[in-house]
Amino acid sequence: MRHFGVTVHIIEPGMFKTNITLAEKNIQHLDRQWNNLDEDTKECYGIEYYEKVKDSLTMVRWLGSPHIYKVVDAMFHAVTSTQPKLRYIVGWDHKIIWRTLSFLPSEIQDLVFSSFPKPKGIPDHELCSH
After folding, report:
1. Is CB count within 10 Å lower at the N or C end of the chain?
2. What predicted TM-score, i.e. pTM, was given to this entire model?
3. Name one GO biological process term (predicted).
């Protein structure tokens, strides 16, 4: 695209408190989804998984930043600057957690992500029949 005078700039926001990350709304949606599942599927996931996912949805309360203007400022700078940055990393969580994690070997990334909740019906390296 550079040959046509077009440059590409990446904006990587971390977690911000917006309507889409509002824990209460997401928990209500999760509850509705859970309540509409058949019993076999609920058994496959397990109540423990469901509860852990609900708990993780509240993480945005302390992880998410209320300063959404930082993302808007990065977008504005990328579009209007005569010398915009190639990459805008916005938010303390992205700078400290996610960006750092991206530089680590895949094996270490896998260890971090394997600590996330896992449905009880999924043994290691297998999928549930649903």
Report:
1. N
2. 0.68
3. steroid metabolic process
